[in-house]
Write a structure and sequence with these properties.
Length: about 160
């Protein structure tokens, strides 16, 4: 399990760097502590989202009437390694299409594991994985935009 935690953290750092580096390039005057803080916070958030993807997919599959009880689906080094490797080689900011292909490949592998662990068809498992991934990404994006808006309001208020 420690190897999986390290790999999930590396994947989270890759995702965070893909979000923070474009921001730093647009605002060259940002201080180093702010950049490091953004990277650390982003790494924790993205790692939490990546770690919860199999759990969310398993939960969705559990809502189906034909799903038998079985052990919960978890990340394994063989499932997470392609995500980490491709994330390190090509940060997500290099291209949304490359990022989408990467997530599709990892999601397909996760769907295969979900299908074999739960006994549901691969297509249904792929739907659960896709809905879970989309829902998690949407939730993080909404929170990210809300925080950016709150921070922008704080910057726009005149100092008294």
């Amino acid at each position: 399990m420690p190897l999986v935690i390290v790999l999930v953290m590396i994947a989270g750092l890759s995702e965070a760097a893909g979000r923070v580096l474009p921001l730093v390039s647009r605002r060259p005057g940002m201080s180093r502590p702010v950049v490091v803080g953004l990277l650390l916070t982003g790494t924790l958030v993205e790692s939490a989202v990546i770690a919860s993807w199999p759990w969310a997919a398993w939960t969705l599959a559990g809502l189906l009437p034909s799903t038998p009880d079985a052990d919960r689906l978890l990340w394994t080094p063989s499932l997470i390694a392609p995500l980490v490797l491709a994330g390190v080689i090509a940060f997500p900011w290099l291209g949304p299409l490359l990022h989408f292909v990467l997530l599709t490949v990892v999601g397909a592998a996760l769907a295969g594991e979900l299908a074999s662990a739960s006994g549901i068809a691969w297509g249904v498992a792929a739907g659960c994985v896709a809905v879970a991934g989309f829902g998690l990404a949407l939730a993080v994006d909404v929170v990210r935009r809300l925080v950016a808006r709150i921070l922008a309001i704080g910057v726009l208020e005149p100092a008294v």
